[in-house]
Write a structure and sequence with these properties.
mainly alpha, 116 residues, globular, single chain
Length: 116
């Protein structure tokens, strides 16, 4: 139960839309999932494992996925295109923002002319 409680604590502490009483709550399903993807990358590649000890290792470094901690510049410097990568099945539709929120009366989509 500890990993679930830790994840819940980190999300409530770091993401404004996950706090209890806020006006910044996520209104659309795809926006909430996109923020959770960013939180997962931040937690695993950027944030150190502990704030108390001076160990500079991240969870991704412990698993051998990277050699050094990342920063936001490194994370956002290269755009990955879904047609060049092999992604799990629901991810391309999430990338194109095709998910709809069932409780909203209008799920308008923005037709991007030059984005892809």
């Amino acid at each position: 139960m500890f990993p679930v409680d830790l994840l819940h604590k980190i999300l409530r502490h770091t993401l404004a839309h996950q706090r209890r009483e806020t006006i910044a709550f996520g209104r659309r399903l795809n926006a909430v999932v996109e923020r959770l993807f960013l939180a997962a990358v931040w937690r695993n590649f950027i944030k150190r494992r502990t704030e108390r000890r001076p160990e500079p290792r991240t969870p991704a470094m412990c698993l051998g996925l990277t050699e050094s901690p990342w920063d936001w510049k490194r994370l956002l410097s290269h755009r990955l295109f879904p047609h060049r990568l092999r992604l799990p099945r629901p991810w391309p539709s999430l990338y194109r923002r095709l998910w709809t929120t069932p409780v909203l009366p209008f799920n308008t989509t923005h037709d991007l002319a030059r984005a892809f």
